[in-house]
Structures are given as C-alpha cells and as structure tokens.
Design goal:
The chain is an alpha/beta fold. It is built from 8 helices and 8 strands, in the order E-H-E-H-H-E-E-H-E-H-E-H-E-E-H-H. Helix content is 43%, strand content 17%. Helix 1 packs parallel to helix 3. The termini are close together.
Length: 208
C-alpha cells in the first residue's frame, strides 16, 4: 500500500469537422459506446473527458443517449469535462478574440448540456506559445495539460515533472500539468482486439 500514486487520466474524444457521417457512427459503435459502458460499471474510477465541439454537436443529434450517460457520470462526480477550442483550432494561429470565442463556445456548451463549469482546457495538438496563459485565464481556464517535452525544453528534467507548474502572461496565471501521451504503438496493438473487461485490467493499473 506504500506504493500508491495519484493517477490522472484524460480521455480525448475528437472527430474533425466535416468528417463523413458513417465515420462518426463507426467510431461511436466500435470505440466510444463500449468505453462509456465500461466506465459506467466502475463508478469509483475518476476520469477527465474532453470532447471537441463538432463531435458534441453530432452526438447531440445522432447519439443523445450517449450524452445522457455522460451527464450521469458528471452528476455523480465521476467525470470532469474539459473545455478548449470548439472546433479544435491551433490556438496560437488564430487572433486573440477568436481564441476567446472558441473556448467560450465549448464552455457554454458544457455548462448548458452537462450543467458543469469546466476548469481545465485541452490544447489542440499541445501547440503552445508563452502568450496563451492570459487568454486562457480570461476564458476562465484554471489548468491545462501539455506534453512534458515543452517543460524539458524549458530546462526541467524528467525527475522534475511531478505535480504541476504555474505559468503566466501579463500577470494572469494558469496551472500546467506535464503529461506524456500513451505510446501510439499501444493503440496499434490493441486496435484489432475486442474490449477486455476493465476488471481484468485494474490489477495491472494498481500494480504500476
């Protein structure tokens, strides 16, 4: 029991705007729905979800029951919902007002449809610039996650990357949690497999 750690996990759900309807439907059937059903079976496991706005709009029309399940997770305190750019823009490439507008769109959707005030932000492709903290702070964001590479380039070592750091722009601050994305090879190896029950994976997670 002395080796317990806090394991923070964010699940990013995204389909690009304009994608084919059959692609949305296939991904929902093969990935999103089985995953959501598995999460439902384990209410004590806490997770953070991020959905891009174009996917939420599609779900609202085509898979409303899936959104109902997510509302249940939020209501019982199992799931936190993140905000971000509604259409998954690369924030540093668009004007400041558009950055604020994109984040506001997604935050408003989360408030309206999940009755939840988002505090964290997903940064599309984790593309970062030092002037983003003031924009994010003005949009109501309290924290974000970034690839640990950004912090290593700033001079931090692997051993430093625990907990979170505060960064600022024009005296407006946000917290940054360094993260290392799961190896893409992991998903490639699992892509052809059917879902394995979460209970069989829990001992593996708790032993690491």
């Amino acid at each position: 029991m002395g080796n317990k750690v806090n394991f923070l996990m964010v699940i990013h759900f995204h389909q690009p705007i304009g994608n084919f309807n059959f692609v949305f439907d296939k991904v929902c059937q093969n990935s999103y729905q089985p995953f959501i059903e598995t999460v439902k079976e384990f209410p004590d496991i806490k997770l953070t979800f991020h959905f891009t706005g174009c996917l939420l709009e599609w779900l609202q029309i085509n898979k409303p029951k899936l959104l109902d399940e997510i509302r249940l997770f939020v209501k019982r305190g199992q799931i936190e919902i993140m905000t971000g750019g509604f259409y998954e823009p690369i924030l540093p490439l668009i004007p400041r007002d558009d950055r604020l507008g994109q984040i506001k769109m997604l935050s408003d959707f989360v408030r309206k449809h999940f009755n939840y005030e988002p505090k964290g932000a997903w940064i599309a492709e984790r593309v970062w610039e030092p002037n983003l903290p003031s924009v994010l702070s003005d949009a109501g964001v309290k924290y974000l996650i970034l690839d640990d590479t950004h912090l290593k380039y700033a001079g931090l070592s692997h051993d430093d990357l625990h907990g979170y750091y505060i960064t600022e722009d024009n005296a407006k601050t946000v917290a940054v949690f360094p993260t290392k994305p799961i190896d893409k090879g992991f998903f490639a190896r699992k892509a052809s497999l059917t879902y394995i029950t979460a209970s069989s994976k829990l001992p593996v997670m708790t032993s690491r």
